[in-house]
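Side project, low priority. Logging it here so it doesn't get lost.
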Amino acid sequence: MQQIWDHLPTHDHGIDLDAFIVMPNHVHGIIILADQSERRHAIPEIVRGFKTFSARRVNEHAGTRGVRWQRGYYEHVIRNEKALDRIRAYIANNPARWADDPENISRAVSAETGRV
């Protein structure tokens, strides 16, 4: 997945990549868009490309067909350096918070059984 992320600027000119992390059921990444005057793809096209390339790679590696990403995604415009630093920290610290994530299946099973 990291290789696909790192390779995005070769397919989508006018972008730079920043923080990125792969979680068990999602990814976080910061895409920096070049000045509007440069011709580049819109965010939905960039995300679609990432999903397409990574799904292909997962399917090839696992010898499967049809592994797909969820339909939607969340995007947020980062407006200043303070927000950029805060989001970079969130991405870097996300793995440490996985045990408490509501989407963590292990957490849901533990809550049902009463075991941690």
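Brief comment: The chain has a mean pLDDT of 85.
Revisit when time allows.
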